Amino acid sequence: MAVPSPLLLLLPLLLCYGVGNVRCSPVHGSNIDLHSLLDFRQGITSDPNEVLKSWNTSVHHCRWRGVMCTPKRPWRVSGLNLTGRSLGGQISSSLGNLTFLNHLDFSNNNFFGPLPVLNRLQQLQNLTLGSNRCKGQFLTHLQILPAYHTWTSPQTFWWNNLTGTIPQTLGDITSLKVLYLYENQLNGSIPDKIWQLPNLVYLLLGQNSLSGGMPQALRNQSSLTTLGLELNMLGNTLPTNVGNALPNLVVLNLGNNTFEGQIPASLGNASMLQEIDLSRNKFVGKIPPLGKLSNLSYLNLGENRLEASYNNSWEFLHSLRNCSYLQAFSLSQNLLEGHIPNSIGNLSSNLQYLILSGNKLSGIVPPSIGNLQNLTWLGLDFNNLIGPIDEWIGKLTNLVRLNLRENNLNGPIPPSISNLTQLTKLFLGGNEFTGLIPPSL
Ligand SMILES: *[C@@H]1O[C@H](CO)[C@@H](O)[C@H](O)[C@H]1NC(C)=O
Ligand SMILES: *[C@@H]1O[C@H](CO)[C@@H](O)[C@H](O)[C@H]1NC(C)=O
Ligand SMILES: *[C@@H]1O[C@H](CO)[C@@H](O)[C@H](O)[C@H]1NC(C)=O
Ligand SMILES: *[C@@H]1O[C@H](CO)[C@@H](O)[C@H](O)[C@H]1NC(C)=O
Ligand SMILES: *[C@@H]1O[C@H](CO)[C@@H](O)[C@H](O)[C@H]1NC(C)=O
Ligand SMILES: *[C@@H]1O[C@H](CO)[C@@H](O)[C@H](O)[C@H]1NC(C)=O
Ligand SMILES: *[C@@H]1O[C@H](CO)[C@@H](O)[C@H](O)[C@H]1NC(C)=O
Ligand SMILES: *[C@@H]1O[C@H](CO)[C@@H](O)[C@H](O)[C@H]1NC(C)=O
Ligand SMILES: *[C@@H]1O[C@H](CO)[C@@H](O)[C@H](O)[C@H]1NC(C)=O
Ligand SMILES: *[C@@H]1O[C@H](CO)[C@@H](O)[C@H](O)[C@H]1NC(C)=O
Ligand SMILES: *[C@@H]1O[C@H](CO)[C@@H](O)[C@H](O)[C@H]1NC(C)=O
Ligand SMILES: *[C@@H]1O[C@H](CO)[C@@H](O)[C@H](O)[C@H]1NC(C)=O
């Protein structure tokens, strides 16, 4: 982008002083921008890297670090990018006067205090005030395995600490495409108007203290592809039409909240979905069929109160055979009962993670599970499974981690277990196996 040279900048100023108020107005706008930025600078109480040293009036503000302007006179501020600059302080409400602002990125700093009112920014598309710590990989496959959770240890990370509520007025910025407030301390509920923003593509509000829920009937928001509300205190039931109103959803992460009621059947209509995380909530009842989600690769329903028992409540599992990209699937710590259906063997041959730990599953492990030859992690621990395991175990030659602890499995440890040359963790305790584990393992 062409940055105005000091000489060019002089020109409109001269015109302004020479001609009068009408010709002046664009410059006036630029002046408002200058004062808004200076006001913002005033609110910064900590700037260890002296980033804002360049924010002084001996240089045009369009040349200040992190400031971007429109390419033409009167060079209105169109972008502010101060990501990862270790800045601390409150975000001045003067930013609400930068009416040409298109994107604002203050991620990975140490801002605190309330979000300013920004509803005059009718060109704002991208508002990023969250942390980047989990960005781009906030659905890691490790999250499917809570017991082995490995958060990167908090080191030199910075993240914002914004408090208070999400202003209703954010819902008036109809240009918004990206609202990224991940990992702050925002509380209160998500304003209803946010669910009516017509251009919203990414709504990422995870890891705050938000309460309330989603509207009981969602309007059609076909722009939305990524919805991340994980790690909050959100609850109530999901809107029954969620999957119909959000037809283009690709990522849905509602993990670690207190959502309750049934998983709406309409979710099975959001056919673009690739990643679903509803883990650690209070969902109950039967799981709806999701077989229309042909791109689904990650499905985490762990730690809820979902049910399946002897009769027809396992249809969802049969339906998942159509999800041929499925790589990770967890139903750990729910209320599943009865036998694991044979159709488990029809799941995607791409499946790498299958976790059914901590239910009340009984009967034998269907030998068809041996079809899932790409499995690297299999967790069937803490159930009531019985019988020998020799029919399938030797086929799962890619297993890295196998957990069968605390069941009633029996019979000899099959010699074919030595086929599992990739194993690094093997848990067989709390069963009635006889014999010894081959020394090669
Ligand atoms: C003003 O900013 C420029 C860089 O844009 C820098 O060279 C100069 O030292 C700054 N002046 C003061 C007084 O900080
Ligand atoms: C924002 O600034 C950071 C650090 O200076 C830079 O790496 C990044 O590319 C910038 N982002 C945009 C969209 O300009
Ligand atoms: C915004 O600009 C108006 C002038 O247009 C001014 O009166 C007001 O103080 C500014 N607000 C902030 C918060 O800077
Ligand atoms: C929004 O801004 C962030 C940070 O500058 C950037 O990483 C992201 O790609 C932007 N998203 C869109 C859709 O423009
Ligand atoms: C966030 O703010 C709280 C107090 O409001 C403070 O105790 C905490 O250290 C802050 N965290 C960060 C990462 O700045
Ligand atoms: C949000 O938290 C603040 C303290 O940071 C508290 O005073 C306020 O009552 C809370 N608001 C809601 C709606 O929970
Ligand atoms: C939702 O809106 C999109 C775009 O405006 C439209 O194509 C689609 O038919 C609408 N869907 C419903 C269910 O109204
Ligand atoms: C998620 O919620 C569970 C309780 O359901 C809690 O034990 C756990 O610490 C939470 N995880 C995180 C990362 O906060
Ligand atoms: C799924 O979509 C179809 C076609 O739009 C509709 O008839 C059906 O009612 C939807 N299912 C649910 C459970 O909403
Ligand atoms: C699956 O993803 C591909 C590529 O992103 C897309 O073209 C296709 O429409 C998706 N399938 C469905 C059923 O949405
Ligand atoms: C197993 O995964 C590999 C990639 O990791 C893939 O190339 C292969 O086709 C998969 N095997 C099956 C049986 O799908
Ligand atoms: C052991 O693995 C080989 C392929 O590596 C397979 O052919 C054989 O059937 C397996 N043995 C058993 C007992 O499953």
Automatic annotation (TrEMBL):
Kinase among keywords: yes
Catalytic activity: L-threonyl-[protein] + ATP = O-phospho-L-threonyl-[protein] + ADP + H(+); L-seryl-[protein] + ATP = O-phospho-L-seryl-[protein] + ADP + H(+)
Catalytic EC class: transferase
Membrane protein topology class: Single-pass type I membrane protein
Domain Leucine-rich repeat-containing N-terminal plant-type, chain residue ranges per copy: 33-70
EC numbers for this chain: 2.7.11.1
One GO cellular component term: plasma membrane
An MF annotation (GO) of this entry: protein serine/threonine kinase activity
Major site of localization recorded for this protein: membrane
Keywords, ordered alphabetically: Cell membrane, Glycoprotein, Kinase, Leucine-rich repeat, Membrane, Receptor, Repeat, Serine/threonine-protein kinase, Signal, Transferase, Transmembrane, Transmembrane helix
Subcellular location: Cell membrane
SMART domains: LRR_TYP
First and last residue of the signal peptide: 1-24
Entry's family note: Belongs to the RLP family.
Name under which the protein is recorded: non-specific serine/threonine protein kinase
Organism: Oryza meridionalis
